[in-house]
Amino acid sequence: MGDTSDTLIVGEDLARVLSPDRRPEPPGAVQNVLTFGWRALLKVKHMPEQLFDVIVTPIMFTVMFTYLFGGALAGSPDAYIQFLLPGILVQTVTFTTIYTGFTLNSDISKGIFDRFRSIPIWRASPIVGAMAGDTVRYTISSLIVIVIGFILGFRPEAGAAGVVASLILLNVFGFGMSWIFVVLALIVRTPSVVMTMSWLVLMPLTFASNIFVDPATMPGWLQAFIDVNPVAILVTAVRDLMAGTATPGIIGLSLIGPAVVTLVCAPIAMALYARRR
């Protein structure tokens, strides 16, 4: 009789646990994004060589351009670094956005994203989460450039507030522009092709800009391109933030590019992702 009572109690407990009323709520979109963002960070932890370009490239560009061109363009490296460093910050973050598409295509080629499609989660979370995790990569790159800049003599007139505001603006810009490379990653077959085609997009945007020299010395047609180049507009905004002279107009103007890219490319990326087999 006692065994029967125990069995009934266990059965009631099991039914209570399995009752639909007691099941936990499935994680929402925010939790999904955070989980995949954490996954992106863990990939860097287990493959630290992914940070090689994030660490080495900013140091190389900052030091090399300061001492190679500083004397010729500004009279001294100390004077040139004040002009150059905000531009190098923008260049570094812009280059780093390539890896969003590169790592995404790597996951797709391995079949990992096909598994994610079968999980009952917010459909966009694997992509948005990976992009959110990459903002840490942008921040690391930017901080390295700033540290090197301070060593070389850079001093922002706006102080820490200008630096923090610049980092936030750079991360927002990088997140928005990354959608271009997400679309590219969903179209091409291999990560190497993503890398090659990404450079074809970024090289004109970064070198045909105001990162290294004042555009006033350039031909009129090139100045016209620089005036609408989103990278050049961002460089101006970051310089103004560092100098403490930024206006809401230049900040808003610098965000138009990533906003347009997001509005155009994000729906295309999700449509391509949904159609993958």
Give me a quick take on this structure.
The chain contains twelve helices and no strands. It is mainly α and 277 residues long. The chain has one domain (52-275).
Topology record:
Elements: H1 2-18, H2 29-46, H3 52-74, H4 77-96, H5 98-109, H6 112-117, H7 125-152, H8 159-187, H9 191-207, H10 220-228, H11 230-243, H12 248-275
Structural commentary:
The mean pLDDT is about 85. The longest helix is centred in the middle third of the chain and has 29 residues, at about 160-185. The chain has one domain (about 50-275). About 80% of the residues lie in helices and about 0% in strands. By secondary structure, it is mainly α.
Structural class: mainly alpha
Q: Report how far the terminal alpha carbons are from each other.
A: 58 Å
- Sheet with most strands: none
The counted number of beta strands is: 0
The rough form would be described as elongated
Number of self-contained structural domains: 1
* Overall residue-averaged pLDDT value: 84
Query: Uncertain runs with pLDDT below 50, 5 residues or more?
Result: none
Query: Radius of gyration over alpha carbons?
Result: 24 Å
Proportion of residues in β-strands: under 5%
Number of H- or I-type helical stretches: 12
In helices, the fraction of residues equals: over 70%
Q: Could you state the order of secondary-structure elements as H and E?
A: HHHHHHHHHHHH
